Every structure is written in C-alpha cells, then in structure tokens.
Backbone:
C-alpha cells in the first residue's frame, strides 16, 4: 500500500513540474507594433498632459487607451451649425479618455486613432481622436526631441442621398465601385465611396506637422 502511495505522489509531482516548465501558449504572446508615452506640455500658456499606450497583436487587432487632462480654452463659436448653448470661450479643466482601434507605425513614427469614451465635456464623447508621435531616442544625448501632434474630430453625419432629380427612382443610388489602373495589376484602386471617418489610415505619416516635446517633459516610445 505504501509503495502505491509513493508512485502516485511521484506521478503527481512529475505532472506539476511539466506544467510549470511548459512554455506559454502562442496565443498569449504579444507581438506587432506598439507605441506608448506620457508627457506634459504648455499650449497657449495652459498646462496639459497626455498618457497613452497602444499595441497591435499578432492577429492584427489593435487596442489601447489615451488619457488627456489639463486646462483648455473652449471657444464660444457655433462653427458646426449645431446651435447649441454657447460655451463662453472660457478656460476650463478638461479630462477625457479614449480607446484606440487603429495603429500605423513606420520607422520611429506612429499614428493612432480611436474614439472618446468618457469626458468632463459631454460633447466630446463619441468624437474621434487622432494622435501622431515620433520617437527620437532617450535622454539628453538623443539626436532630437520626441515630437507629436493630435486632434479631436466630430463625426460627419450625412442626412441626404445624392440622386438624379429627373428620375423618380435612380438605379444608380447605392451602387459602389473601385476605380483601378487597367495597365497595373498591383494597383489597389480607389473606392467610389470613401469613408470620411478619421482613422490612422486617413493621411500619410509624412503629411503631419509635429511639435517637439521639451526634454524632461515626457517620453515617447515607438516599436515597429
């Protein structure tokens, strides 16, 4: 009886050691490009701070978040024709969080986009956020300071459908197509109905004008 107990204990210990030494499942491994950073900076004399972290896994899914806090001037303008209550053009403390769903990395630059999930200004919730960063190394010996730019964009809601006014039922309404170069098989083509939602793919990385982050005010890291 004692011999059977010893064998059972040995088998149990062997099984436990096998589980502890086994490598983690491949699905749990993280991979792909990523970007992260935390920095403070003045805008028109107002102190603001941004903290972000975003990554694309091996399956191609992007996830991440952004937090913005600081004083900002809210203009007293109805530039979108919404006829809402005026905000008074006053300086107020603003806080919002955003969730990223798109990331594009090229070299030491990254552009990421998502939407505002919570804010002290209700009008911000649901708006698109675009953040562009450039990682130029660490410490005082870096060849150049890190750089960035960002924006918050309202969704463009269309309430009309173009059609031929002379036809009661225009057969072309709703049709879509892709225009391609007939002589180039590698040409991806241009869709007839482009989405106007602001994403990380809306503009090429080279088109952005970036502002420098002063040394000591934060750090940006981009990993292709």
Residues:
């Amino acid at each position: 009886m004692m011999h059977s107990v010893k064998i059972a204990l040995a088998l149990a210990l062997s099984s436990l050691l096998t589980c502890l030494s086994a490598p983690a499942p491949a699905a749990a491994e993280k991979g792909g490009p990523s970007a992260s950073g935390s920095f403070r900076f003045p805008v028109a004399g107002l102190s603001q701070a941004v903290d972000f972290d975003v990554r694309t896994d091996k399956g191609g899914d992007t996830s991440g978040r952004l937090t913005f806090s600081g004083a900002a001037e809210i203009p007293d303008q109805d530039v979108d024709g919404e006829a809402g209550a005026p905000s008074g053009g006053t300086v107020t403390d603003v806080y919002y969080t955003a969730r990223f769903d798109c990331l594009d990395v090229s070299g030491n630059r990254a552009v990421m986009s998502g939407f505002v999930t919570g804010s002290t200004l209700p009008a911000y919730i649901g708006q698109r956020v675009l953040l562009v960063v450039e990682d130029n190394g660490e410490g005082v010996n870096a060849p150049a300071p890190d750089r960035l730019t960002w924006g918050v964009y309202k969704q463009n809601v269309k309430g009309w459908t173009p059609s031929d006014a002379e036809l009661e039922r225009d057969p072309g309404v709703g049709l879509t197509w892709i225009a391609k170069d007939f002589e180039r098989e590698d040409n991806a083509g241009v869709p007839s109905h482009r989405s106007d939602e602001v994403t990380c793919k809306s503009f090429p990385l080279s088109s952005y004008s970036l502002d420098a982050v002063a040394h000591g005010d934060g750090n940006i890291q981009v990993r292709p």
About this structure: Residues 25-156+170-223 form one domain. The chain has one domain: 25-156+170-223.
